[in-house]
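Fold it.
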Amino acid sequence: MVDNIVVRSPGRALPKPVAGLAFVTMWAVGIVLFSIAHLVENPLLGAFVVDTALVLVSVGFALLFVDWVRTALRTMLFGLVAIVLFLVVDLADITVLVYMLRIIVPLFAVFVPVNRVANGFRIFA
């Protein structure tokens, strides 16, 4: 039997200490941002500080379950996109999109470990 499926390596493996350091660093910065958000006098900028902390905490959580450097870089890139979206939406005061992003960003972060666990299951094999 000839197997036509080519399994390509997704690149270098992400070392667990690097993932752990990124997790701890992002959570520490997120906690500090949560702590100083009430000191910001402009309420729109205060909301942006809280939302930035939310993104950092979510990306830090997701990085614990990432196995490859390329996937980690993509995760951080999507976090940067989320921060830019929060900047635009918070300063424009579009409440519906702010709350949508506040729900979707942590949800995507939770999908990473769920996807990792679900990849181990074979249904039709």
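The chain is about 70% helix and 0% strand.
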